[in-house]
Amino acid sequence: MSEAPIVIHRPAGTGGRRVTIRAQGAGLARSDNDVIEFLRRAGLPDAGDVLDDPRWVQWQGGRPHEYGAGLCQ
Questions:
Q1: What residues form DSSP beta bridges with 11?
Q2: Model confidence, pTM
Q3: DSSP string of 31-59?
């Protein structure tokens, strides 16, 4: 299991990905912008800089930055 504090879960069948920050639910993201907003609210102002850093973010299932159901970044 990853030690990354941010987990972006596998895409849902209806689109979007659940996001957890330190094991707490942050919401359903439908784009990178949604993830960045969740992280900003959690106190990480430069969140866009960490989305591709595996020390910070674990992407589960599917490709990173893809949110399912035909939605894209």
A1: 17
A2: 0.87
A3: SHHHHHHHHHHTT-TTGGGTTT-TTTEEE
